[in-house]
């Protein structure tokens, strides 16, 4: 593969990734809610002047939840496309994907509690 085609294909892939992210933000309420929560947590990070390590953990948790939420949405869309009518197996698959989001969100909440507990409840 020549270098020009490689760069062109990478740029095309980047375009599709941005397009997909925009579609998620524009159409999916769960992603919109996660973004609002993320903005609030980021604002809290600036307010409490958290450390660089805390920023890394917080941003990793935010990215994890939003990414898993996007994958969950893709699984649901694919399942609905493959079998538009109710089916127990499709419901099971969707529940598993939603469970992955739940795990990521619980871990994100625990990370937030570990980071912000001392800032909020410090004994000064």
TrEMBL record:
GO terms for molecular function: ATP binding; kinase activity; metal ion binding. It is a multi-pass membrane protein. Keywords: ATP-binding, Cell membrane, Kinase, Lipid biosynthesis, Lipid metabolism, Magnesium, Membrane, Metal-binding, Nucleotide-binding, Phospholipid biosynthesis, Phospholipid metabolism, Transferase, Transmembrane, Transmembrane helix. The active site is at 69 (proton acceptor). ATP binds at residues 16, 28, 76, 94-95. Mn(2+), Zn(2+), Cd(2+) and Co(2+) support activity to lesser extents. The keyword Transmembrane helix applies. The chain crosses the membrane at residues 31-50, 96-119. It holds the Pfam family DAGK_prokar. Its cofactor is Mg(2+). Its main location: membrane. Belongs to the bacterial diacylglycerol kinase family. This is Diacylglycerol kinase. It comes from Planktosalinus lacus.
